[in-house]
Amino acid sequence: MAPPYTPYWCAYVTGWGADKTRYQLAVGPAEQSALAERLAACPDQPVTVTYAC
Questions:
Q1: The model's pTM
Q2: Which of 2, 10, 15, 34 has a beta carbon 3.0–4.6 Å from 42's, enabling a disulfide?
Q3: Domain of life, per the record (predicted)?
Q4: Percent of the chain beyond pLDDT 90?
């Protein structure tokens, strides 16, 4: 579920993407589309990934 506080969306969606990358989790077509749409609205939001061992 998405956070209700709209300004938090960028942090939420970049964290979601970082977690997917960190744990090498699959992203389905619908999820990829939704993430890309949200990330497009956050051009200056950094994404930091710390890989799991």
A1: 0.72
A2: 10
A3: Bacteria
A4: 32
